[in-house]
Structures are given as structure tokens and as C-alpha cells.
Amino acid sequence: MRKVGMLTLGKKGLVSLMALKDHDLLSKLNFVVVGRDTSIQNDYSNEIKEFCNFNEIKWYTRQSFEQEKLSCDFLVAIGWRWLVNTDHYKLITIHDSLLPKYRGFNPLVTALVEGDKMIGATALFANEEIDSGNIVSQESIEIDYPIKIQVAIDKIAFLYGKIIVNVLQSKELKSKPQNHNNSTYSLWRNEEDYRIDWSWDSKKIIRFIDAVGYPYLGALTTYYGTEIRIIQAVKVSDVEIVNRTPGKLFKVEKNRPIIVCGKGMVQINKAVTEKSGEEIEFDKLRVRLQ
Predict the structure, then answer these.
(1) What span, in angstroms and rounded, lies between the C-alpha atoms of 278 and 11?
(2) Theoretical Cys-Cys bridge with 139: which of 159, 179, 207, 249, CB 3.0 to 4.6 Å?
(3) How many CA atoms lie within 13 A of 289 on its CB side?
(4) Which DSSP category does 176 fall into?
(5) Taking the CA of residue 197 as centre, how many other CA atoms within 13 Å lie in the half-sphere pointing to its CB?
(6) What does the pLDDT look like over 58-98, one tens digit per residue?
(7) What pLDDT, in 10s, does the model give residues 150-178?
(8) What phi, psi does 172 have (nearest 5°)?
(9) Cβ neighbours of residue 115 under 8 Å, at least 6 residues apart?
(10) Can you count the helices (H) and strands (E) in the chain?
(11) Cα–Cα distance measured from residue 11 to residue 43, given in angstroms and rounded to the nearest whole number
(12) Strands 29-34 and 59-61: what pairing?
């Protein structure tokens, strides 16, 4: 029987472990390595450790993991963001896209911002080129908009569970090459990429706000010199504005400002200050969000 080591990060790691338990496959796990992500509000590292303890699975932190000393036939990386030495094991990674689409970083966020109707996950053998190895298993699901990133993560996590079960249940790990001619890429994101571009159309802005919300930090903009995070917003009916200026407040209705976009308008239903987290009182009209 093949023995597997898992590198886990986030909710997708926890859900994958739970799926293995549901299918009586935990006996195939030799160990679990638990990663941390301090940039989100809950990285599920504590829940993964508790799961391993309860089910008597050996686990290690990323810092205490001595790869060359642990035995397994191959590693599966779930949500993992760090380099892995493949001298000792074959490595299967699971990527948040329908490869060869969106190779690289933050593919799920990119898919939601772009308005993709179909999202998915792909298990592939790692190689030297980014997300270009042979595909072992792939699952997809159709979505409707608007959709919050947390809901999309739950859907992707469910697909991860299906994929990891497929991989561990298979008697032979077959794979197929990607069509490299169809490959696209998604760039890494940092703090600057949370800022809203008000020149976008209102549909894309709403998708962006929903895509970078909890468990991420939230869409960023500046209101009267104060950095704020927009938590909830909706698209509203547009009007003919002769001198359209993206980012300007059109009007404020019961503390809910309507913002002019490059095309269309959005209404902010909830926003908080970046520093204190207090909800914003929109008491000024002659303001341009930036």
C-alpha cells in the first residue's frame, strides 16, 4: 500500500483530511505538515493539528519538518506556498484552477474577478516549470454571481476532497500532459492589489470586492484621507452622467454612498476603517474615492 505525506495549508487542507476520513483512507497517511498563513483571519492550522491529534496522525510544523528523515512514496501539497525538495519524493500539488488556465498565484481570486462561470482544481505532478506538470486529477463546478470568496473557497475545498480521494484510491497514478498552447497565468498579489480601480465597470468592481473579502483583508480605497475596507457593496442602476468621473460620490442614502464607476454605479452598504476596524459614517458628499 502506498504511503503518503501531506503538506497542508488552510481550510482546503482540513477539508481534504476530513474527506480521507470519510472514505477510510487515513491509514494511507504517514504524516501531515501544517503550514501557517498570518495574512488571513483564520488559517485553520489549529483545526488541522486538532484533527491529526484526534485521529492519531503524526504532524509537524513547517519549521520542524525534516523532509529527508520521513518516509513516504509521494507528497501531496494542498494550498502549500513554499518550495519543496523533490529529491526524496514525487510531489503532487493541487492548484486552484482548471489548468492550463491561471497558472501561478491566486488563481481563484483571479477567476472570480474575471467573472468565470466555471471554477475548479487540478492535481498535477510538480516539475521545474510553474504549474505545467502532467495532470493527475481535475474537478470543476459551475458558479453564479454575486459570490463571496469564502463561498467559493468552500466549493473549491469540496473539490480538493474529491481529488485527494481519487488520488489515494487509484491503484495506478496515471497522468496526462497539459495543452501548453492554452496556458494563461495569474500574477502574485500584495497589499497594493487590494485597492479598487474605480475606472472598472460596476460589475467587475463588485466581483473584486467579493473576491478579496473575508478571509482576506478586503477591498481597499481612500475616503476623505482615510484608508477604508469595503465589506459589502451592490451594483445599482446607472444614470446618464455627462462628466463621468470614476470614484466620485453621486449621493448618500442613509449612510450608504453611491459611487460612480467607469461604467455603472455601486452602493457601499458597509465599510470599516483600515486602522481601527470601526464602521464608516459617510457624512461627506464632495469626495472622490481613490
Answers:
(1) 27
(2) 159
(3) 31
(4) B
(5) 10
(6) 999 888 877 666 777 888 999 888 777 777 678 899 999 99
(7) 999 999 999 999 999 999 988 888 899 99
(8) -135, 130
(9) 145, 203, 204, 207
(10) 5, 14
(11) 7
(12) parallel
What does pTM read for this prediction?
Answer: 0.88
Other C-beta atoms lying within 10 Å of the C-beta of residue 216:
19
Which residue has 506538470 as its cell numbers? 133
At 227 the three-state DSSP class reads: strand
- Placement of cell 506556498 in the chain: 81
Exposed, middle or buried: residue 271 (CB in 10 Å: 0-12, 13-18, 19+)? buried
Whole-number Å distance between alpha carbons of 123 and 103: 12
Q: Pinpoint the alpha helices (H) of 146-212.
A: 149-169, 202-211
Q: What is the 3-state secondary structure (H, E, C) of 16-72?
A: HHHHHHHCCCHHHEEEEEECCCCCCCCCCHHHHHHHHHHCCCCEEECCCCCHHHCCC
Kindly give, in sequence order, each residue whose CB lies less than 8 Å from that of residue 29, ignoring residues fewer than 6 positions away: 3, 4, 5, 6, 20, 57
User: Taken in order 14, 20, 24, 25, is the CA torsion positive or negative?
Assistant: negative
Cα–Cα distances (Å) from 277 to 233, 247, 270, 271, in that order, read: 17, 22, 11, 9
- What amino acid is encoded at 232 in this protein? Q
Q: What separation, in Å, do the N-terminal and C-terminal C-alpha atoms of the chain show?
A: 58
